[in-house]
Every structure is written in C-alpha cells, then in structure tokens.
C-alpha cells in the first residue's frame, strides 16, 4: 500500500524555538495532505488541509501564523511550529490522499520544555 | 457539527474471545464511515469502511455495519488474536466533500489481547 513518512519521529526543543516536521508520500503523489494533532487519550483533531501549490486551509481555532504549512511538491508537506511553547507539546500526524483514501504517517511527538 | 463517540478503553480480552467496540456518530447528511487501526509505533491504517446505509465493511475478520437508524458503526470480530492488540479509531468523512476529504475521529479504543 501507499507509504507516508514523517520526520522526525520525535523532537524535544526549548520554549521559543521553531520546529519543522516533514511529511512525505514515498511512492505516490498527493495533491492533498492533512495535518492532525492528537492529545493523550483524545481524538485526532484536524488542524489544516494542505494543497500542493496553494495556501493551506486551517480549521477554526488553529493559528495559521503559529502553525505554518508549506506544500511545496506533490510528495512533501511541512508543518513548522513557530515560537513553540509547552502547550504546543503534542503528537502531530499527517496524512496524504491517493485514490480517494487517506494514508497516514507514523506521527511526530513534539515536547517543548 | 460532526462528531464520533466510541467506547473508552482499554479493552482487555483473552485470545479467541469475541470483540465489540461501539461507535456512534452525529452528522448531517450521509457520511462515509471508517475504522482505522494503529499498531504500536506505526501510523493509522484503514481497516474497513462503509459508504452508505446497511453496507457492511469487512477485513481481516473484522466487520462493521452502517446503521443509519441507530447512527452506529460498531466493530466486531468473532475471535481475536494477540496480533490484534492495537488502538482502533472510528471516523466519518464530511458528507459534503467525499470519502478522501476531512475526517472526524473518535477518541480511539485500545485493545489488549492476552494468551
């Protein structure tokens, strides 16, 4: 099946720094990628929809200046958490669509100290 | 808005036991319904899906039937194995944007199967 990778798988950073997370579709092209956030024992919450070559569409309540999304190619989308704070600590998951199905990455655990 | 409610875990079963994980949803229109599974250290994988009322999705011995009258999509398996230990997510798609678009997830149910 289609494979989606994320890098890094985990990251620890100091408060105030920025962190970039990459999401790649390894064996298919994805015009649409999604970014989710998951808190412990809670649902995956959709943060934004990323379309190749256009601006991302953010869900209500998600700060677009805080969570920068770039979808530079059909196989790569990046999420940058700017000026990270401890409340941004979470598990971030991306997915990529192909043939009307979403394929998910393994997730990135971000810990902000 | 759309929402999905699934039973809290963890669910602990002995091997070969019968499994049911309840899932109910709230949505306007006619969403597609999904079950995803997440094995330790891996991403979410689609387990099965149903796109209209009374459809039954099935895969790897798991089944779920789209029940519009009860707005439910309960996951069942007749005989679980240790290898089924994972977290299971029920989800629905926004009925206005097709099956590959926005998904609304339940909180996930952790299943532990012991020998």
Describe this structure in words.
- The complex is a heterodimer of chains A (113) and B (115).
- Chain A is mainly beta.
- In chain A, 0% of the residues lie in helices and 56% in strands.
- Chain A has strands at 4-7, 10-13, 19-25, 32-38, 44-51, 57-58, 67-73, 76-81, 90-98, 101-104, 108-112.
- In chain A, strands 2, 4, 5, 6, 9, 10 and 11 form a seven-stranded mixed sheet that branches.
- Chain A is globular, with a radius of gyration of 13 Å.
- In chain B, the strands form three sheets. In chain B, strands 2, 5, 6, 10, 11 and 12 form a six-stranded mixed sheet that branches. In chain B, strands 3-9-8-7 form a four-stranded antiparallel sheet, with no helix packed on it. Chain B has a two-stranded antiparallel sheet with strand order 1-4.
- The termini of chain B are far apart.
What is the helix/strand order of chain B? Answer: EEEEEEEEEEEE
Residue-averaged pLDDT of chain A: 91
> Which runs of chain A of at least 5 residues are low in confidence (pLDDT < 50)?
none
Largest sheet of chain B: 6 strands, mixed
Contiguous low-pLDDT stretches of chain B (5 residues minimum) are none
Secondary-structure element pattern of chain A, one letter each: EEEEEEEEEEE
Helix coverage percent of chain A? under 10%
Main sheet record of chain A: 7 strands, mixed
Determine the fraction of residues in helical runs of chain B and give it as a percent range. Answer: under 10%
Interface with most residues: A-B, 23 and 20 residues
Indicate the proportion of strand residues of chain B: over 45%
Figure out the total of helices of chain A: 0
Number of helices of chain B: 0
The 3D shape of chain A can be described as globular
How many strand elements of chain B?
Answer: 12
Distance between the termini of chain B: 41 Å
Separation, N- and C-terminal Cα atoms of chain A: 37 Å
Radius of gyration of chain B: 14 Å
Structural class of chain A: mainly beta
């Amino acid at each position: 099946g289609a494979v989606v990778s994320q890098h890094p798988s985990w990251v620890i950073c100091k408060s105030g720094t920025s962190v970039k997370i990459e999401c790649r579709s390894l064996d298919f092209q994805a015009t649409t990628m999604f970014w989710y956030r998951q808190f412990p024992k809670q649902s995956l919450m959709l943060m934004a929809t990323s379309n190749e070559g256009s601006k991302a569409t953010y869900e209500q309540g998600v700060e677009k200046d805080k969570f920068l999304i770039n979808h530079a190619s059909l196989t790569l989308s990046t999420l940058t958490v700017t000026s990270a704070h401890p409340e941004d600590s979470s598990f971030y998951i991306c997915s990529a669509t192909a043939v009307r199905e979403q394929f998910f990455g393994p997730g990135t655990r971000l810990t902000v100290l | 808005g759309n929402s999905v409610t699934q039973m809290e875990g963890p669910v602990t079963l002995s091997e070969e036991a019968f499994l049911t994980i309840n899932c109910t949803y709230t949505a306007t229109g006619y969403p597609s319904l999904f079950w995803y599974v997440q094995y330790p250290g891996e991403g979410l994988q689609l387990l099965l899906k149903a796109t209209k009322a009374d459809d039954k999705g099935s895969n790897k011995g798991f089944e779920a039937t789209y029940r519009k009258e009860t707005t439910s999509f309960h996951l069942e398996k007749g005989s679980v194995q240790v290898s089924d230990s994972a977290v299971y997510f029920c989800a629905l798609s926004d009925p206005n944007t097709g099956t590959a678009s926005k998904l609304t997830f339940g909180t996930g149910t952790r299943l532990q199967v012991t020998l």
